[in-house]
Amino acid sequence: MSDLNLRPSQRQAHALLVLCLIPVGAILRYVYFSAPETPRAWLLLGLVFFIFPLRLYARSWSARLSVEGGALRLIEGLLSQNATSMALDRIQKVSVHRSLWQRLWGIGDIEIESAAESGAIRLHDVDDPQAVADRILALSRPSPKAS
Q1: Do the Cβ atoms of 76 and 82 come closer than 8 Å?
Q2: 18 is in which domain, residue-wise?
Q3: Residue 145 lies in a domain
Q4: Residue 146 falls within a domain, yes or no?
Q5: pLDDT tens-place string over residues 37-90
Q6: Total structural domains in the chain?
Q7: What is the predicted pLDDT for the residue at 2?
Q8: Which CATH number do you get for residue 109?
Q9: Is residue 89 situated within a structural domain?
Q10: How many Cα atoms are found within 13 Å in the side-chain-facing hemisphere of 124?
Q11: Rounded to an integer, what distance in angstroms lies between the CA atom of residue 30 and that of residue 20?
Q12: Residue 49 covered by a domain
């Protein structure tokens, strides 16, 4: 069983999906009530609005950060995948980056740096990023042995 399993937030995608219903509803109203002689192909225009929330959903589905068996692993990609692993005992710094927009949504980016020069692991748009960063740091530190 994994100690931590984490995916990017879907809060923005949910809100954007609801907002997309407004122009789609307006197009449906126009095609069916205001101008019934309009070709039904105009309804396809409403699908364009759903590209933006679908992009956010795809990003959420395509990334996963997990801590299991003493290793932290970031897996990215839907069709082809990249996996980056890091030993928990090599973690030196966990940073949280939050823009104003992310602070409004209660999300943020987590960047995990190790003792190696290989670079950092970064996961975007995580719910409650500070609590997750604290959890990762707690998992990376050796637990005190009971006497």
Answers
A1: yes
A2: 4-140
A3: no
A4: no
A5: 877 777 777 788 888 899 989 989 999 999 988 899 999 998 999 999 998 888
A6: 1
A7: 60
A8: 2.30.29.30
A9: yes
A10: 12
A11: 16
A12: yes
